[in-house]
Amino acid sequence: MQSNSEAKPIHLISDLDDTIKISHTQSKLITVYRGLFRSSAFSGMAKLYQEMLTCDDSDFTIVSSSPPTIEKKIRAFIHKNHFPEPKLILRDWIRSPAVKAFKVKALHKEIEKSKHPLILIGDDTQYDPEIYYELSMIFPKKILCRYIRKVRGRELPADTIGFFTAFDIACHEYTQGRLTNDSVLAVGEEILKAKKLSRILPSFSLIPPANFAPIAEFPEKSIQVIWEQISSKIQIIANKKSSKTKTRHKD
Q1: Fewer CB within 10 A of the terminal residue: the chain, N end or C end?
Q2: Shortest CA distance to 233 belongs to which of 205, 186, 188, 200?
Q3: pTM to 2 decimals?
Q4: 66-112: per-residue pLDDT in tens?
């Protein structure tokens, strides 16, 4: 696997809400509240993006349907959680009332003019899976990979890689030679530092199946050990969620 000094430039394009920021976009009222007053990031995502963008020539863009009126709050979220500084593309709700149309146009333009191979990261709460797939059909040689956070757990388009935590992406990027062993471990350790389990998987998010593993076979023992620790925390989350469900059913 490559060392960081051998890292090649990429263009990372990411969604914001429920991809890197815990927003609960399935509930519009909660989304508005969190957009204005909360700044919780999924644990490990900032470290993942730092490791993916080690090459100085790499580009980072966030495309979000959030309005320009909250750009300062988005910038504050980015700084507070130590994400790399991105180019921000936000939706003018008056000129672009349709979320999907806005995203298709914005992403198409970014991909078309990008000078580097691209990695797209989003979630399955809205249109990211379908939009990313359609764009990969238009730009098959430019898009290296499409990652979708499994919040709802709906079926994903072909060749889309679903993920639950930043560690899943880190492991796959390692198998592709784009991240080092140390990078994967750094992402895993950041997830384990989460003071709240909800930063790993919030209550509204899908819980991975008990036999889930981010990759079929762990290439390094150290990576497997970190995964076992993360998996233990996920099991605690699953048990708590199951307990609450049973309590509601009894009531």
Answers
A1: C
A2: 200
A3: 0.92
A4: 899 999 999 999 999 999 999 999 998 888 889 999 999 999 999 99
